Here is the input.
Amino acid sequence: MRQVNDMNSNRRQSTINSRRGLYLVLASICVIVAVLALVGCAGSGTSSAGGETTGAPSSDTATPSAGANSKMLIVYFSREGENYWNGGRRNLAVGNTQHVAQILQSLTGADVFRIRAADPYPDSYEDTVARNVQEQNSDARPAIADPLPDISGYDTVFLGSPVWNMQEPMIMRTFCENYDFSGKTVYPFATYAVSGAGRIPEDYAKYCRNATIGETLAIRGEEAEQSRPQVQDWLKDNGLAVR
Ligand SMILES: Cc1cc2nc3c(=O)[nH]c(=O)nc-3n(C[C@H](O)[C@H](O)[C@H](O)COP(=O)(O)O)c2cc1C
Here is the structure.
């Protein structure tokens, strides 16, 4: 009996031991599952946070944004309406210089200030020519419609306009004379019909006080809309950012 009892007790003991082993395995599996679930949650949390905080900026670094290029400013004047076009006249919905300014902006991410005349120039080409002659003869400083920008934070200023009677429109002098360009480089750009940039580089050297004058980009008005390669080359030649 005793032996039987002992045997039974041994059998009971081994049943208890194997049950304990099973519980331990089950408990271990539960713990592993719980840990994996936590790691999984933490993992997905990190990746979503990473997407917001580090993913976007890393692609921004490869392609400079306007913020990254905030030291560059494009200032331009351009006139839509009737204009010279291949020996004739054409009504321009977007001015030639504006096309170049837009291309320049897309390549640099620079900030932009468009100069608009407080007293807008006429649509008619001949009337605009006549008014410009008057303004040149009287050494006028036509008023600018909008408040002028603070340029103290910029070290590069692209200054663009059409060529009017072999020089910049007088309103460009209105702009220049409002500033001290110490420590800044002014890169002139201009569109023209036949004459090239005319006296623009010399005039900016005179009217943009203390500016360093960089290389001038001059583009035929009729080619302005397709001038991306020329603008790109000019930027590269002058060590300026190209996206
Ligand atoms: C008042 C006036 C004067 C101009 N004078 C010249 C000039 O001296 N030389 C030239 O090549 N083109 C001259 N043009 C043509 C413009 O420079 C050319 O069409 C330019 O691309 C216009 O740019 P916008 O559309 O941005 O105003 C003149 C145009 C106007 C309206």
